[in-house]
Every structure is written in structure tokens, then in C-alpha cells.
Write a structure and sequence with these properties.
The chain is mainly β. The longest helix is centred in the middle third of the chain and has 12 residues. The chain is built from one helix and six strands.
């Protein structure tokens, strides 16, 4: 079974990285999200991994980096699609991102 994303084909037993174009912004710039593709040597299930959905979760990025770096395509049956920054507009590296709140209002019920 073939796998193609954004007109790019992924061969069995390969590891790839691409920037996936997801939107055109109001200022005419393009919005991309990073995508790691680990295509196993044989067909099988697809595992999708997402991190930084809300923009302020950092530990999940480390987990995805570790999985991508330490996983060989030869030991995978199926495909791993890993997105380390799903919401790049809320990423700390994106201009205009508000700082992480140090204090949050917590309510308690008695």
C-alpha cells in the first residue's frame, strides 16, 4: 500500500520530515506544521502522535523527539505520523505568543 502526503511519496522502510502546509494566513503568509513520517517495512496500523496542541505543553515534544530519533523504520510494522508542534500559532517561538501564566486562578469546592 502506498503512502503519499502533499504529493510526496513515502517508501517502505523510510524516515522523513516535511513541513505540512495547513493554511494561508490573512497576511498571505503560509502556516506550516512539522511532520515526521516513519514508514515501516511492512503495512500495518497508523499511529498518530501530536504534541503542543495548546501551545504550552513542552514535555510531549521531548517524547516525540525521542521516539523519532530512537525508532528505526526497520522495526516498525505500519506507519508513525508524529507532529511535535500541532498548534504553531501558540508555540513560544511564534511572534505574539503570550507568556506562560505563572499563576492561575484555581477554584475550590468545599
Amino acid at each position: 500500500m502506498s503512502l503519499s502526503i502533499n504529493a510526496q511519496d513515502f517508501e517502505p522502510g523510510s524516515k522523513s520530515f516535511l513541513l505540512l502546509k495547513v493554511a494561508k494566513m490573512l497576511d498571505s503568509s503560509e502556516l506550516y506544521i512539522p511532520l515526521h513520517v516513519i514508514r515501516g517495512v511492512s503495512d500495518g496500523p497508523v499511529l498518530g502522535l501530536l504534541a503542543s496542541v495548546h501551545g504550552t505543553e513542552y514535555y510531549q515534544n521531548r517524547i516525540i523527539r525521542r521516539i523519532v530519533n530512537e525508532t528505526s523504520a526497520d522495526e516498525v510494522n505500519g506507519t508513525i505520523l508524529a507532529v511535535p508542534v500541532a498548534n504553531s500559532l501558540r508555540s513560544p517561538t511564534y511572534p505574539g505568543t503570550p507568556p506562560i501564566p505563572l499563576k492561575r486562578p484555581w477554584t475550590s469546592r468545599t
